[in-house]
């Protein structure tokens, strides 16, 4: 019999997986995590039950999910690499484990699913005609999950904008705008001038997922939600928030430079991660905004100034010393 308050997190060392695991534990859940090699170095004893195994091996996932009422599928190949080979087999293992355990599957979704016909403001049920390889994989992931829901496995999908948060990970904030572990001297912004961009603060996304799990019995078998997150109207609000956070610590105001897309183009034939990042460039050339508004009880929303400062601090990008008060800028 599955325990409704036991959750298996796949990808618990990733940005979103780690944050969901932390918040589930804080909400009184028993949290189990599957990882090759078991507990990572520095893991706090007792906070998470670490199980040694591989998300690519079905029996490992089935064993880890035994007795769990929830499986959080937050595992992805690092650096966008080998998606066609790895993403769908890992999801199939999660679906098999969810079916065997009678568990709800939770998936952090993206905007990759949508093509030009659904832009600029795709709704949860907008047609999915992606123009990229990763988008096609995302559509197939959701198709398989919808099929699983039709056979009795409850599914919750939360789609959000580009992640940022106190842990480094596969996101543009920590891989492009700033460099983890280094004081911010230069901000390299990937977007076109004047084009809006949607961001999602990881603790807010995780909070939304935990709240939905607490209400899972009231949701349809296949439930999809969009989060509004932080909408940067012209590409300058995130940059200015970073600059203000650095200035509050007494640091020199960071310069703003264009992201070197030319370098990615030149290196793409030789570096898989650059090739995959290049494919996502269209999301920086035109505004794509998921409006949200359907989350029961409203959406968790940390003010941008506070979220950016916590992110930079967590990434080790702020000078040490006394910080000035963080006062949210007018919206």
Automatic annotation (TrEMBL):
Q: InterPro entries attached here?
A: Epimerase_deHydtase (IPR001509), NAD(P)-bd_dom_sf (IPR036291), NAD(P)-dependent_oxidoreduct (IPR051783)
Q: Which GO terms of the cellular component aspect does the record hold? A: cytoplasm
Name the domain of life: Bacteria
Tell me the Pfam families matching this sequence: Epimerase
What positions does the domain NAD-dependent epimerase/dehydratase occupy?
7-217
Q: Which GO terms describe its molecular function?
A: aldehyde dehydrogenase (NAD+) activity
Checking Gene3D superfamilies in the record gives: NAD(P)-binding Rossmann-like Domain (3.40.50.720)
The name of this protein is: NAD-dependent epimerase/dehydratase domain-containing protein
Species of origin: Cupriavidus yeoncheonensis
